[in-house]
């Protein structure tokens, strides 16, 4: 029965009962009501209102509780759903609300997957252009400077050598950025080698000490899941150097039951995890694409990012 008809029947039943009581009961009202009659009418009206309120509360109370609980649900959290109440109206409302949240989650996951796929494609294109265009041109410039240095007079040789060294450093930076945009080692050698290269580059450019622990014999993962793990590790290391000011970082990749766990812990000054930035939201979106669970804990002594993905993730 719909909520509208249930409320209508409750009100109708109360009014019919009140009318029958007035007709069949020993009550009458004179042309000029006396105080006793006014008291009887007031008590009857109050009793009718109380009975009506109690009956309506039994039907609408669960709905009000569900509405209050809706404000506490985070639609972005895949496990945060309302429990099914015992009342029929509450069950209908909860079922509709949970179904709506599930649809929103599915649509958001699909749109995020497309956005991240487009982002990876754009990174691939930029990395290819950096390698093929900018890198090749800098290589030509580097070779030209070397030949010019060999033929130049002694007073210009030192300046050309300095210019050649600066060009070589710029070429190394271009190649490093290209590797970060498109981790070719991930496609060629796998996740463990890609993480090793990532931590080595991080230690060289940040000055922080990095300890890497990768359990041998990890189960094979789909390419998309490996890319998610790599990007989350990359973002966690970037945050440790750029925002946390960490001097020591530990990265581990281990198997925990039927899941693979990536943990990046630093000794930086920490942050308030309730105030998520674009980087942390991006990591959560990537974790959801791999059916993984991301947890971030932080205090003044450091920050720990943990991502667990199922071995059978698609």
- Largest sheet: number of strands, sense, barrel closure: 5 strands, mixed
CATH architecture of the domain at 208-314: 2-Layer Sandwich
Q: Tell me the structural class.
A: alpha+beta
* CATH homologous superfamily designation of the domain at 208-314: Histidine kinase-like ATPase, C-terminal domain
Regions with pLDDT < 50 over 5+ consecutive residues?
none
Quote the average pLDDT.
80
Tell me the strand order in the biggest sheet.
1-2-3-5-4
Shape by Cα distribution:
rod-shaped
CATH top level class name of the domain at 208-314: Alpha Beta
Radius of gyration: 34 Å
Summarize the helix and strand pattern as letters: HHHHHHEHEEHEE
Strand content: 5-15%
Distance between the amino and carboxyl termini: 43 Å
The CATH topology of the domain at 208-314 is given as Heat Shock Protein 90
| Number of separate strands | 5
Helix percent band: 55-70%
Number of helix segments? 8
Provide a short characterization of the protein structure:
The chain has 314 residues and is of the alpha+beta class.
Give a structural overview.
The protein has 8 helices and 5 strands, in the order H-H-H-H-H-H-E-H-E-E-H-E-E. With 314 residues, it is an alpha+beta fold. Among the domains are: 3-105, no CATH class; 208-314, 2-Layer Sandwich (Heat Shock Protein 90), CATH 3.30.565.
């Amino acid at each position: 029965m719909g909520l509208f008809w249930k409320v209508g029947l409750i009100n109708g039943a109360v009014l019919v009962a009140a009318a029958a009581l007035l007709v069949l009961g020993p009550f009458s009202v004179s042309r000029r009501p006396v105080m006793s009659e006014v008291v009887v009418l007031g008590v009857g009206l109050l009793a009718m209102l109380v009975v009506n309120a109690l009956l309506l509360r039994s039907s609408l109370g669960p709905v009000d509780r569900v509405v209050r609980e809706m404000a506490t649900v985070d639609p972005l959290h895949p496990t945060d759903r309302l429990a099914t109440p015992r009342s029929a109206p509450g069950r209908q409302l909860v079922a509709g609300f949970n179904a709506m949240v599930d649809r929103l989650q599915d649509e958001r996951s699909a749109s995020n997957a497309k956005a991240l796929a487009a982002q990876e494609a754009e990174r691939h294109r930029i990395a290819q252009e950096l390698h093929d265009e900018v890198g090749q041109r800098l290589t030509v410039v580097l070779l030209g400077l070397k030949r010019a240095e060999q033929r130049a007079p002694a007073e210009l040789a030192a300046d050309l050598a300095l210019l050649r060294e600066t060009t070589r450093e710029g070429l190394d930076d271009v190649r490093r950025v290209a590797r970060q945009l498109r981790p070719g080692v991930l496609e060629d050698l796998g996740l463990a080698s890609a993480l090793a290269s990532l931590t080595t580059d991080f230690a060289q450019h940040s000055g922080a000490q990095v300890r890497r622990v990768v359990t041998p014999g990890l189960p094979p993962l789909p390419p998309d899941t490996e890319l998610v793990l790599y990007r989350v590790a990359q973002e966690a290391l970037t945050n440790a150097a750029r925002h946390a000011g960490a001097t020591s970082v530990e990265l581990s990749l281990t198997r925990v039951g039927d899941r693979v766990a990536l943990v990046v812990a630093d000794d930086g000054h920490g942050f308030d995890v309730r105030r998520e930035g674009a980087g942390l939201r991006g990591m959560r979106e990537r974790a959801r694409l791999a059916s993984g669970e991301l947890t971030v804990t932080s205090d003044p002594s450091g920050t720990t990012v943990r991502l667990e993905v199922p071995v059978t993730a698609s």
